[in-house]
Amino acid sequence: MTEELTMIRGIDDPALLRRGFTLYPRGVMAVAARVDGVLTGFAVSAFTSVSLDPPLGLICVDKASTTWPSLSRAETLGVSVLAEEHAWLGRQLASRRGDRFAGAEFDERPGGALWLRGSVARFDASIDAVHDGGDHLLVVLRVSDMEADPSVAPLLWHDTSFGAVAPLGNK
């Protein structure tokens, strides 16, 4: 049995627009820090590099987030690129209920940034600027330190599901 594919078109329906946006595969990041003694963080899939000089990245944060007001007060934020094995954690960090950090191993950095163990790449960053972006905030981060392990496969978010990178063998 074959499933018929339906074209998605138009921006008048926010659900359709959101679905259209999910068709672009992207990584999943944990953004986390210890704030006032409490582990605080969430998952984002809207992350991009902005500049090498100075070293800047950008995350997009929903204005309705109840976590961001606290997290935005952190001296430094840890941004960790989730590995394929972290799919369970991606869902957990995105949840609005329960302990987002249960079962996860994070290392605390100077300034309170939290780096996820076993992640693809980890960045220490401070908030450089915040801009209005409709129903989101565009948060420019100034990166002060990083480490990465290119041998670890990243977790992808695509079409409302987690996925994996499948190399094409054209290196």
TrEMBL record:
Listed transmembrane segments: none
> Which keywords belong to this entry?
Oxidoreductase
The Flavin reductase like domain covers 21-164
Pfam families in the record: Flavin_Reduct
Q: Which InterPro entries match?
A: Flavin_Rdtase-like_dom, NADH-dep_flavin_reductase, Split_barrel_FMN-bd
> Which Gene Ontology MF annotations are present?
FMN binding; riboflavin reductase (NADPH) activity
| Residue ranges the record marks as coiled coil | none
The family assignment reads:
Belongs to the non-flavoprotein flavin reductase family.
Q: Read off the PANTHER family from this record.
A: FLAVIN REDUCTASE, FLAVIN-DEPENDENT MONOOXYGENASE, REDUCTASE SUBUNIT HSAB
In Swiss-Prot or TrEMBL terms, this protein is called Flavin reductase family protein
Q: Which organism is it from?
A: Georgenia yuyongxinii
